[in-house]
Amino acid sequence: MAIQIKQYILVLLLSFSFSFCALSQETESKIALSEILALLEQRYKVQFNYAEDAISAILVKPPQETLSLQEALNYLEIQTDFSYQLTDDNMVLVIINEAAFDLQKLSEVVVSGYIVKGINKLSNGSFEIKVSEFDILPGLVETDVLQAVQAFPGIQSINETVSNINIRGGSHDQNLILWDDIKMYQSGHFFGLISMFNPQITQRVSLTKNGSPTEFTDGVSGTISMETDKDINSTFNGNIGVNFIDANGFVDVPIGKKSSLQVAARKALSDFTETPTYNNFFERISQDTEVESNSMSITNSDKTFDFYDASLRWIYKINKNDRLRVNFINAANELVFNENTTINSVEDSRESSLSQNSIAAAISYSRTWNTKWQTVFEAYETDYKLKSINANLLDSQRFLQENKISETSVKLKVNHKFNNKLQLLSGYHFVETKMTNLDDVDVPRFRLLVSEVVRTHGVFSQLSYKSNDKQTNLTSGLRYNYIDKFSKHLLEPRLSFSHKFLDFFSIEVLGEFKHQNSSQIINFQNDFLGIEKRRWQLSNDNDIPVIQSRQASLGLSYSKSGWLISAEGYYKKIKGITTQSQGFQNQYEFERTSGSNEVRGLDFIVRKRLNNFNSWLSYSFMNSDYSFNDLPEATFPSNYDIRHAITLGTNYTTGKLKVSAGLNWNSGRPTTKPVIGNEFVNGEINYNSTNSSTLKDYLRVDVSALYNFRLSSATNANLGLSVWNLLNRENIINSFYRINDNDVTEVQQQSLGITPNLVFRVNF
Hints:
mainly beta, 22-stranded antiparallel beta barrel, disordered N terminus, 10% helix, globular
């Protein structure tokens, strides 16, 4: 018996040794998937589009050289967890196979590399930016997501900030900005010069100009939705980086086999050093504000600025059917300076300050009941606070201002998949928004506190259809909203249709009705020290109406052999805007009335990709008019009516080096000038017709370069340089007039001058 056991053990050991040797030989015959894709690119003259971190650990046996391209792709689909989609311009999209329930899965890529690699157009009419696949854009050494969306035709910033993004002539408050489905009321650091959303943890950005899904409310001009990685990471990775503005870090930590935690943080370098970029930014935000200059007897000193942000995402896969996600974000800006004077030979000094803070948290729980049913529960709490303390030394006065928001949202979604072609999304959405505005003066004592709450109930449903040949995509739905404070009922249809024909052409039809209950207004130009002078307020369905929009667009595209030619015409009308929300600085600066905005336009882009080069030219035409019945001029051009805009760019990309250069031009924003020779009448400025003039043409040239290299077998690094406004052109981005000593004086605000930025990042 003992001999038999020993023989049995010996056989097992020999079998194990043989199996181990065989396995070792098999493993040795496998190579990295990234190397295989590089070989296939040379063999079949195609280009693979994929996220490097997603395939970095995948080993596969190379496909046989005798296989055709499609046979090789089919082989890789069997060997990996990816699917490989070949587009008309010889681009192969490497797509992670996800669960059957994904709304994004129905919206497949129809144009890859819409502008550069990593920017794609989807079949539902929206656009996506995949940060991990992103190439490079002119002037951006880091992937600033809110700067990147301005590369699309029809999207600009009238004052070069990410806190004033204008989608097809809309004001910034008309944009719905989401971070992992949390509505954010603050979008920028440095009061708008850079995005407050850390690109190291933000992996995907979705831009919707029109035809948005019914689950979304608000954002009558457009939606910018940012998402963190949806996958659970099995290996530890992270990075640390520093540039001329901040130091930042990111880690992705696996917690067992079912969970992973991502944490990212940034902190301004201003506590340690002041770089040329920091100085340019500070000078830009303080132009013509109390921070830059005060009255002749008062001087400002000890100016300091700081910002930080921290964000967290935790995913826990409870079992194969249940998944939990938790998000948290906290971001802040703070500006402090001293106001100094001498009164009766006695020196006096007081501190003035401005702070801006957002903090939000969310939870998402999804359950897949079977192959046909899935439910998703989402809830978030988002809070925003803008606070300023303005010291008035001459009057021994302190002026305190606050603008606070507290919003709670609960959403339940139900997905039903009829088959591979048809899917139904339905759900319920509740939102409670509370906004508080405070103006407090200590001498003489004055305090005005206004707090309002609006609750909205929404029921939505949409049906999505995708044909078997993937040539036709249709999403149609309806959202019903009830605003309880006003007993108001709103029906909002949504439509997205695309069809591909003659192999290389596609047509697209989009339409939507939307509404929003909040807007940003300016009471006085010197509010909040004149820097972030906009405050949020809720509609009252009276003099501040609920804002409602209607929009339709028609587009046609051609894509073949690296060429993309696309044109889209659109019409948009927004009712319920107020003069306070549009930023007038002319004869209507202190008017309080409501009206509408009508926009007609065309967005056009042509892009050519040839080997390692990629070039694009985009053009936007827009005609945007206001209608205010209670003003002397019932109709006139809007403040965001930039009639013509052109972007020209090119980049060159190899395995290690990315270089990009670009030019931005527009015909100048509208302005209102006084009547020449008769500027001053009855103690007031005598203006010409509203917005009958335009500022000088805007022109900016940007360049950027990024170099990747290895520090060790497990560590690589990035070194990048960008220059914003390379030619140092003096662009006027705003002009208004004031009365000084019975004389009319023009005040001009300049854009950023030549501004370099340098980044160094280590990935581990």
